[in-house]
Amino acid sequence: MAHIPPAESGPVPPASPAMPRASRRQVLLGAGAAAGAATLGLPRRARAADRTELSFASAKFFGKETIAQVVDQYNQSQGKVHVTYIELPPPSSSTEVHQGLVQQLARRNGTPDVFTQDVIWIAEFARAGWALALDPYFSADVRKQYFPGLIEACTFQGKFTALPWFVDSGMLYYRTDLLQGAGAKVPETWDEMTQTAEAIQKSGKAQFGYLWQGKQAEVLVCDAVEVIASNNGAILAADGKSARVNDEHAVGAIQFLYDTINKSKISPSDVLSWDEEPSRMPFTGGKAAFLRNWSYVWGISQDPSASSVVGKVGVAPLPHFPGGHSAACLGGYQYGVNAASKNRDAAIEFVTWMSSPATQLHFALQLGIAPTRPAVYDEPELEKQQPFMHRLQSVFTGATPRPVAAKYAQLTLVLQSAFSKALVSGQVKQALDEANSRLDSILTST
Amino acid sequence: MTPGVSVAAGAGAVPRSHRRRGVPTAWLLLLPLIVSLASVSVYPILDGLWLSFTNTSLVTQEHAFVGFANYATLLADPQFWNAWRHTVVFTAVSTLLETLIGLGMALVLFEPFIGRGAVRAAMLVPWAMPTVVTSKLFGWLFDGQHGVINWLLLSLGLIRHNVNWYGSVDNAFATIVMADVWKTAPFMALLLLAGLQTIPATLIEASRIDGARAWEAFWYVRLPLLWPTLLIAGMFRALDAFRIFDLVYVLTGGGPADSTETLSTLSYKVLFSALQFGYGSTLSTAMFVTEAVIAAGFGLFIMRQMRRRA
Fold first, then answer.
1. Which ipTM was obtained for this model?
2. A:B CB pairs within 8 Å
3. Fewest CB within a 10 Å sphere: which of A75, A105, A215, A425?
4. Confidence (pLDDT) at A40
């Protein structure tokens, strides 16, 4: 705490142009004040020279606080490292964030020293050799403190190259009042959900049974990964070297999504053009019984100015097929250290602080992003201030990564197109056969 | 005209040796222009062409010459041909509709009426709007559940159920064409209005005196004289429509089932999402070649029309 500059000067960065001017004014005020100026200005300049300079690039997130404010808190908490935050576009412009990072990392000049990465870029950055392997710095015991699905997503070909920052995943939103009215319990299998949704639709209490995201976009791959994994299937084989998206597990799962529109008719055909927001609106408008979406919907659903279902919404893990288990598509951002960084030790120190339980709790309370350490969910402060997040621990425990592959960006384009074709035409097997051979050829080509 | 003629005549009078001596100076003076044009225009095109013969990828960190391998992949790539077809059809249909509607608008705006100036200015609003805004606007208008269009059609009794504009392979493409026509027809109208104004009023007057009705005056006098403007405006529009990107990107992302994928959105995905610069450049080159063919077709046609008239 001794290093923190006086409050009135605030967290002014070193070499601030404001400093000499302040000193001059102080000189004019008299000798005693000039001495004050020395204590105000000089120690900070000296410290700036001693400190290791780090650059930290991250997509923009904000809540009550911004990332820049959290970084400032780190700068003030110690005197060895000074971190400069480089703000990238928000995660809604994910392609631009990715592009910006790749362009910087490909230069291999050590800037930025630390960055944050979407969970689907980890393999790509690891394979290109841009992300430093963190195994020597974070032992297996430390890694056990995070959700297992996350550690799986952060590990590429046996190397741990990303440190979890925050987590999000798909989850099932349901209307507590409608379920009670229908005398139904929270569904655990897709069949149960379909029956309940049909019954509620028939009673006329809700126009739609189940809303999800079928737009030909990344979110469709997320929705598909969830149903496929909940049917004991997967997109890629365990070794990641071949595809298995046309086996009976995957075909059955995608067929189920097709049937929600065409057979049980619990979903309108509009879901085929909907991503997150268009599917969220009918639900918070009181028109639907079930919704698959991310954690952000909770806040909106409890806001009386945006929602007509305040106090009538419940959240549960997504249903599964008989013999399967609930799977939630893993999202979120992770820290990475630039392999070309010249300040490796300082970078490790910084990410350790950023991913520590205390900072994760701070992020949860101030920015509303969910911790990646299960232990943080037991903090009484989290339960008090973010009761909803507190309940999501069980959802995140079942979080399933999308294929961990260096060429994920190519794979997902094939998957988006194939799933969309299957859902529009109903030729599920044929579309997935085609996709499987295209995935295989991408995976085998170097 | 006179000074120009005299200068040309003067240049002709200069002895041969003198003229040759001026040549290096001329090149020297042109050099800055050549260098700047070459660096911002020629070099990127050549570099793109070169990339299209490599397997450059930022993800796999490869950068090797692969000959025509990318082009072989391209010719066998159903996604490319799918996008190519959509782009060509989109270009043809939207240009045709925009030219016809624009012509109609231009003819109306040409006639004097109260408030014409204000209407002419207001007409440019859709065109001046950023396309991303137009896309969002159309996204809401044509929304399958809460859209005004469905509500209007339902209220008028024209449809029984909400139409799924973007989520159905049958409608998504047509909806995007509609949005583009709404946005760009006014621009065509303005270009054609400028063309109409160059036609001497005396010709129309003369045809009237000869007993031509309004339709005949249009068909036999105005339209033939407007023909060059129509062709040039059509060419500009076609080349622009060929690059259709923002509407598709915002509204459908190329879906459902690739039914609205165009060459621009496909190359964007390959170049900037998958970061395959080699194959992406091959796609862009194919786009460039198709566009050059369209431009050449228009150019030849325009030249032939001009020659026939001359």
1. 0.78
2. 102
3. A425
4. 43
